[in-house]
Specification:
2 copies of one chain form a homodimer. By secondary structure, chain A is of the alpha/beta class. Chain A is built from 13 helices and 12 strands. Chain A binds a DNA duplex through helix 2 and helix 4.
Chain lengths: 330, 330
DNA sequence: CATAGATAGGTAACCGATTACATTTTGATT
DNA sequence: AATCAAAATGTAATCGGTTACCTATCTATG
């Protein structure tokens, strides 16, 4: 592999000049520029990105750290992030922590050590302390679905509690009398907020108590088993608010097996607005997040911090909206 | 940030000694080792990965390049790759090309320039020439679903043609008389092979011709529209082999809207064996690939090449098997 | 014509590790 | 005590870029 010194020699100039041509920076005559370009061509020279990173302490890479790529929510976010990143000449590396704190920590170290220019992260098991290093090194970190009290970084989230209210209200509107909740893991902030929204709407009903809530994983299996649990506890259940769409899909499956017709015997509302809610039969009513917007905004925030290290953090809270489909049409 | 020289000074030794302690290489007395470790502790020293990479030309990072993370097939592969990688101290960066050649090329350049230690790639629009650079630099590349004639690198694929035969045969067995095929994009090798398998089983029927085949994207929407097209062309269609599970799921949806009962009016077989085939109602019969195995094997091959630059390429062709579910039970 | 400022290009230090090679210390052997 | 190999540590070059600082040339201006 040719180095910049080889090119300099070939073109009969100094390395500084070659570097100037490479980054079109500083004064170089058209003529020398041509000579250098010819030399580059001839030697098939490719600048070494690592050496460059070491020198300027930037990599043109941003990382997107997600807890579970098998939740379609994250690929959709990723798509938006990549679109914006690519337009600005950045590359995106996706890191999947599989919900494990050890992997998260390792990735964070690795990213810091490799001079990524920014990090977009969605993770439950993330503490402020984990980001201390990054902050110290001025590596912008944007959190999704997680507002850190540390006001160093921007965050993007949605109105989860309001969404929970919307969903529950909708179930009441369509005539449900006994509404259960398949809640996400309790340490997850979004899950908690959605739960609160649900509770807000039901706390004054006399039939309502804790037994209407089952905590499950954010997964199809979680929803499936959780729904069966709810059927067992409350055979008279006629509506359920699932903390995300995967859970809702699992609940739908469970209802089918349990012999309950959706929406007539059981109305279901999910949360997120991922594509599979349109695939199921019946299609699932959901609280739609502006997923693409979230990813886009996150990446734009990263860029804002990259371009201005003194940028001030903002906490964005985006709107959600109810999309009614057959799973609640009765 | 403290550097290795700071540590050396603090511990009263040379940088070489510090490096030796860091990589426990060479001779160091227990005593100096302690002193160095204390200094590291005190200064909160973290070795700079970029500098290290520049020096040893390795990064402990391997990349997984996929065409579409929103196809659950790839997250499942990713999981396997990550599991093996992590066990061996490697980190995995996921690169999503979104099926675009320009992004693929950019990623490949970027990966080469950043000294990734290995690449696992699944991409249709990949030519041998694209890998020339990587080969030259001894960066192992393992292809999934794509056998390159260039025998420099290993490949992992499955018996796609046989799978197509299995699927079609199964449809015949359960009594289908008119069997269509929702084929993947024609430039995709796996799609082509699955098609051949389908054709093998039907070419001798006198009703069979090209009109029973519709080419679609490997997506739910693709399957949805393709199936409607098939219904229009052939109202008497009673079985369909979809080139992957997403297509099958779309077909299922279309059948529902078209008023055809699955499996009674239309039997459906998919391909891949991703989780959503168990979620749909009815669940979808599919040709199951050993997805986790594929990812695991790919990563193991990468490691084999990393540890032995003279390793010889192998072309693995794994088995597939029919998993019968309700979508063909009649 | 002298001079200042702009333009063009070069030299060498630096980013932060690794490591070949050199040097010193240790300890066993005779 | 002399000798020598093994053990321990140090020096400085190297990986391949960037860039602060320096020098030389060119042009415009009074």
């Amino acid at each position: 592999m040719a180095t910049i010194r080889d090119v300099a020699k070939e073109a009969g100039v100094s390395v500084a000049t070659v570097s100037r041509v490479l980054n079109n920076k500083g004064y170089v005559t058209k003529e020398t520029e041509k000579r250098v370009e010819l030399a580059i061509e001839k030697l098939k020279y490719k600048p070494n990105a690592i050496a460059r990173s070491l020198s300027i302490r930037k990599s043109n890479i941003i990382a997107l750290v997600v807890p579970a790529i098998n939740n379609p929510f994250f690929p959709e976010i990723a798509k938006a992030v990549e679109d914006v990143a690519q337009a600005k000449g950045y590359k995106v590396f996706l890191c999947n922590t599989d919900d494990r704190r050890d992997r998260l920590i390792e990735y964070l170290h690795s990213l810091r050590d490799n001079f990524v220019d920014g990090i977009i992260i969605n993770s439950e098991n993330l503490t402020e302390a984990d980001l201390e290093d990054l902050k110290q090194q001025d590596i912008p970190v944007i959190t999704i679905d997680r507002v850190l009290s540390n006001q160093a970084f921007s965050s993007i989230s949605v109105k989860n509690r309001y969404g929970g209210q919307l969903a529950t209200n909708h179930l009441i509107q369509v005539g449900c009398q006994r509404i259960g909740h398949l809640s996400g893991p309790e340490n997850v902030v979004t899950a908690k907020d959605r739960f609160w929204g649900y509770r807000d709407q039901l706390k004054n009903f006399d039939w309502f108590d804790q037994s209407w809530i089952v905590k499950v994983d954010f997964s199809i299996e979680g929803g499936y088993h959780g729904m069966k649990e709810l059927f067992q506890r409350h055979p008279d259940i006629d509506g359920v608010f699932a903390a995300n769409d995967l859970i809702a899909a699992g609940a739908l499956k469970a209802a089918f097996e349990w012999g309950r017709k959706v929406p007539d015997d059981l109305a279901i509302v999910g949360f997120d607005g991922i594509d599979i809610t349109e695939l199921t039969i019946p299609r699932i009513t959901t609280i739609q997040q502006p997923i693409y917007e979230i990813g886009k905004l996150a990446m734009e925030e990263v860029l804002r911090f990259i371009n201005n290290s003194k940028a001030t953090a903002k906490n964005y809270e985006l709107d959600v909206k109810l999309i009614q489909r057959e799973s609640t049409m009765r």
